[in-house]
Predict the structure.
Amino acid sequence: MPTRRRSPLRPSSKPPVKKPEAVPSQEDSPPENQETQDGIRLHKALADAGLGSRREMEAWIAEGRVNVNGETAEIGQRVTERDVIKVSGRRVYLRAPEEKRIRILIYHKQEGEIVSRDDPKGRATVFEQLPKIRGAKWVSVGRLDFNTEGLMIFTTSGELANRLMHPRFEVEREYAVRVLGELTSEMQRQLLEGVELEDGVANVKSLVEAGGEGANRWWRVVIQEGRYREVRRLFDAVGVKVSRLIRIRYGPVELPPQLKRGQKHELDETEVKTLLKWAGLAVPQSRPRTSGRGVARKPAPKRPGRY
């Protein structure tokens, strides 16, 4: 009898919390009634269409790659489904929220892969391992550097990617960290209280010893930001070298033990809805299956004599 697959979701994990002191920015979503009356911000609409993250879309707009109704778009501009939007000359069609199917895929990244669509050096990229999709684009939730392996999340929802990545939501990232040498109690204190890095003070939220042999020791580390090579730099700052780094959890999503390096798994509809609810986002309503040209399939009539 085949074993039942365990869901990678752990909804009991702390949901994203927006800091009350955070300063509103263009990354913030406007009120729902305002979106209905005035349209949606262009960078958010493009991200929701699956073209990339909101920050990437803002960069494209600033570079002049986006046109709305024949004119060069501006950052902060609002659009509706009636507007003609083109990115690098190609038409982009916006869909109503209830028509969008959000897809989420988890992937076990291997060492030696980069998180980029193109690489001048010709190295393997994680996007080469993802299934092709029509009318949308996989957006990576955060990154892992060349020498780091572990859990990566991809989605077609720019809004979900933003909710998981942005520092103001304090979404936890958990790593299995192998270090060479002893991590003294003083070093642990520094990591927990804060260490000065080139881009400001950073710290780990939790630090738990996880065994090991000889000079190599394993630790379970939780951080709430996604700075460049943050875990490695934190340990370097206290004088300890990281010899192996594996991301094992991102928010409520855990790296399944059965998902081997280089393998991927797409969340089912129930898991997608669970993750969206955890993130505080609206859950799209399931649409009835269609037959023919978009006509909802009707139930077959009962035959006489059958119950």
